[in-house]
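Can you give me the bound-state structure? Components:
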Amino acid sequence: MMSNHDEQFEATHTEGSKMGIDLVGKTVKNKQIIFKGYIDGSPMENDMELKLGDGLKLEVPKGSNAIVVKNLYLSCDPYMRGRMLDFRGSYIPPFTPGSAIEGFGVSKVVDSDDPNFKRGDLVSGITNWEEYSLIHKTDQLRKIEQDDGIPLSYHVGLLGMPGFTAYVGFYEVCDPKKGDYVYVSAASGAVGQLVGQLAKLHGCYVVGSAGTSKKVELLKDKLGFDEAFNYKEELDLDAALMRYFPEGIDIYFDNVGGAMLDAALANMRIHGRVAVCGMVSQTNRTDTQTFLNMFSVISKRVTIKGFLQSDFVHLYARFLEDITGWYKQRKIVYIEDMNNGLESAPAAFVGLFSGKNVGKQVICVASE
Amino acid sequence: MMSNHDEQFEATHTEGSKMGIDLVGKTVKNKQIIFKGYIDGSPMENDMELKLGDGLKLEVPKGSNAIVVKNLYLSCDPYMRGRMLDFRGSYIPPFTPGSAIEGFGVSKVVDSDDPNFKRGDLVSGITNWEEYSLIHKTDQLRKIEQDDGIPLSYHVGLLGMPGFTAYVGFYEVCDPKKGDYVYVSAASGAVGQLVGQLAKLHGCYVVGSAGTSKKVELLKDKLGFDEAFNYKEELDLDAALMRYFPEGIDIYFDNVGGAMLDAALANMRIHGRVAVCGMVSQTNRTDTQTFLNMFSVISKRVTIKGFLQSDFVHLYARFLEDITGWYKQRKIVYIEDMNNGLESAPAAFVGLFSGKNVGKQVICVASE
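Here's the bound-state model for the whole set.
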């Protein structure tokens, strides 16, 4: 189900901030999505399993400094695939087989032994794919001030990690200038849709690519891209980019890697910048990627820069202020793909890698 | 013949600034190295041919603003391979089949219609592979102040385009910091040897690779690299780099591209920088380059930056002052591979791509 900030959707999301207290001390079954074991290629639904749980008492041990939360919205993000690999050399450790999947979520505090959080508070940050979670690492959580104008789920999207990724990726990595020719791949995704809109606000010419005609329409009609195309309908990506960028590309915001990155390199302008945000086209971190146009890096003096949003936390407050303001002024919109029920999470997550999601993929576990 | 600034060599190079005047008006046969036609793969000797010339009158047409020069030293540079391809999309146009090869040289003015140059002046810049040249584009020439402490041929090497490439590549592209771990490929070449020495002066730890044990010895014994290795003796480049950089690489100065770039990506430290200067390992500009470690660009937040020295001309005066000073203070040395005679140029040029040269490849056409 795709939705942006329509009224029906907002109505669902801006309620329910007063529950929680009556749950304290109860023992719940606590449905979970368990990570079964390390994968080799693309994630599949049966790499995860729904488990009823052993029973969790909704009470925080005294002195633990932990909190117990009820999870409302869970985020499906492509980076999580990396945590399914048995590889410890990356920026984030792998998942633990037999335990619930970890990921970003919006949750409500049921009980707290941390003086920074009280019952009923809304928080966003790393939680588990389960109905209720005991969270020890509370310092990574951010308290959400309820705002009737902002859907709660946006705190894992527009105002969460993907939105922040788009913000710092565009402003801090791409070195954008008014009038720049900007290309965004996976452009209707959680990050891409915001990059394109920020580029438009900045006075750039923006083209996006996506994998269905529906997404292409969204890019042009809802998200304000100047042009968009379905890369699956293009036999020659290099030629497609040349058609949309006869003058060449100043900024390529790369969410996919591989053949698209290669095609973009062939079409970069002199002193062009490539911000490498993701490689969702690749099935594994050590997939072979073949380039024909690497020499363009020299001849066009291209900068290819990989980045992680976590290096820019000092900009988070500014990001929240900017994006919240622009959203309320209707300068930007945000498209979510909302699935209902924890049990829908594995299929929704796996769907990210075949482009099934239209917009930011979120799981609604409970609306209050 | 390999030489650095030994006495015998300097003696040959610091003479001969007074000839020229008596040649004016004479007609010379003018031996030339002709570019026969566009190539597809690696250049071969028979892509060029020695021609006696149709006779050139050593006199500048009045009003032409041109000069006639006698060529003393000609430079063999890897970028020239790109000009042998029938490809007009690069930063420099292709050679003209049937005409003499163009390249950097040190020359002496025989006759001049340009008020900026007079007979007997020494100049460096783009000339032709022939004994005498009529040069119309005099604005790209630089007048050389004869200096007994600096071999004339260094104006196509240490103080010419390759030296300037090393200087701006290291200081302006690599963002070097004291204590950085620096890796240089093709490290004994015209550019690499200076990059390594500048990195040492900057307080970095420097490892170089080259393709013969002789070059490896030079890197360690003459050029002051901390370590060096022969890449041809390594079955696994990734493992070799891990051995020399157990802490990882902060800066990779890439002169070769391809498999070595891939191996370096696997070994970069967080926020590492790759300056892409050349791709001499590739036989063509659109050779397939296969990468297994492109994902490191994201996970290690690596910046890969291609550059051309021509974007930094505003730094040329500072470069000349710095490098001349450091050379005279014996803080840096420079190794040349000097071939004698214009007819030796094709083989010397072709040899660049199999690593036959030891140090900067220069052709001595005439010593005065």
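A couple of observations. The domain at 161-310 of chain A is CATH 3.40.50.720 (Rossmann fold). The radius of gyration of chain A is 21 Å.
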